[in-house]
Write a structure and sequence with these properties.
Blueprint lengths: L1 E5 L3 H11 L5 E5 L2 H10 L1 E5 L2 E5 L2 E3 L2 H4 L2 E6 L6 H7 L4 E9 L8 H4 L16 H5 L7 E12 L2 E13 L7 H12 L3 E4 L3 H22 L3 H6 L1 H20 L8 H9 L7 H8 L5 H15 L4 H17 L5
Length: about 325
């Protein structure tokens, strides 16, 4: 089986290395710069459970060198996706499955939710170019419940979790989704088949969309955000708004914000991905995590003043740091 990883960072390196250890899988990687050099020299490397794992990989900066694939795993940050979608055409044959393992609202959400009218979400797919480049019929939804770090170019380190939820964007079971889940299970992941992956994506977003911008603004870890009664209340109010948006689009959540806070507390002094991006001077993944929620809310007529305030403050913080476009 031919599998290409696009975005060999923390999650892409984690999943790619585990798949590359399977004898029936041939992994390729689309990469550039120091990451490309590391992959060509050392293969896919993963530090996990006290071991250093290494898997062979065919790496190139040009998708045409890799050729058509059976499965393409996209694990880039949201701001990079439009360029990636334009570049991966040589990887896509009519049978190729595209599995985006990314944070936040995926670009395919507007195509999978009739209430949004099929129109692209400007926050994550300006002008609809991603949807034009990646056929919706070839997409499988994926929600990642794992924490990893990039220790060095081409070297991922596993921190916690092995959860991968895979499903059809329109819901329901399919042979192709079941096959991908089985492949991931053979690679050592706690992979499950989603009855409706839209619900799983919205539920994960429900927690991330508050903690990420607040930690990026303040520099605090999530435990400190929850320990402060005012910031915890702000999270709860924004989450209540997102819960109302979810109900309006068929992605209802049965928990309360306080229920979710108790789950988040188990992470301890955890740095969110957006805080890590601020500290590393990387572009902020704000649009997929907060901007898209705000845009969906406007489309379905749900008032979200707290989400809007979080978006405005985090956006301004990013612009001051040069990590978000003015």
């Amino acid at each position: 089986m031919r599998v290409a990883v696009v975005g060999v960072g923390a999650i892409g390196g984690f999943v790619g290395a585990r798949l590359g250890l399977l004898p029936e899988v041939r992994v390729s990687a689309l990469a550039r710069g120091a990451t490309l050099q590391a992959l060509q020299s050392h293969g896919l490397r993963l530090r996990m459970g006290g071991e250093m794992l290494s898997a062979p990989v065919l790496a190139s900066a040009h998708a045409a060198d890799l050729g058509p694939q059976d499965l393409v795993l996209i694990a880039v940050k949201g701001p990079a996706l439009a360029a990636v979608a334009r570049d991966i055409a040589p990887l896509l044959a009519p049978h190729t499955l595209v599995v985006p393992a990314m944070n936040g609202v995926p670009w395919w959400f507007s195509q999978a939710l009739p209430v949004l009218g099929g129109q692209p979400l400007a926050a994550v797919d300006p002008q609809g170019r991603i949807a034009e480049a990646i056929p919706f019929a070839q997409v499988l939804g994926c929600v990642v419940h794992a924490s990893c770090l990039t220790e060095a170019p081409g070297l991922a380190a596993h921190v916690m979790g092995r959860g991968l939820i895979v499903g059809e964007p329109l819901g329901g079971a399919s042979a192709r989704a079941e096959a991908v889940v089985a492949l991931l299970q053979r690679a050592g992941f706690e992979a499950t088949l989603a009855a409706d992956v839209r619900l799983d994506a919205w539920y994960k977003l429900w927690g991330n969309m508050t903690m990420n911008p607040i930690t990026a603004i303040t520099g605090a870890t999530v435990d400190r955000v929850l320990d402060d009664p005012l910031t915890r209340q702000l999270c709860s109010q924004a989450m209540a708004e997102a819960q109302a948006v979810g109900a309006a689009i068929g992605c209802g959540i049965g928990q309360t914000p306080e229920d979710r806070h108790q789950i988040t507390r188990k992470l301890g002094a955890f740095k969110t991905s957006m805080l890590q991006d601020v500290e590393a001077g990387r572009a902020l993944e704000l649009d997929a995590l907060v901007g898209a929620v705000h845009e969906i809310a406007q489309r379905v007529g749900v008032d979200t003043p707290f989400i809007g305030a979080l978006l405005g403050l985090a956006r301004l913080r990013g612009q001051v740091l040069g990590l978000y476009p003015a």
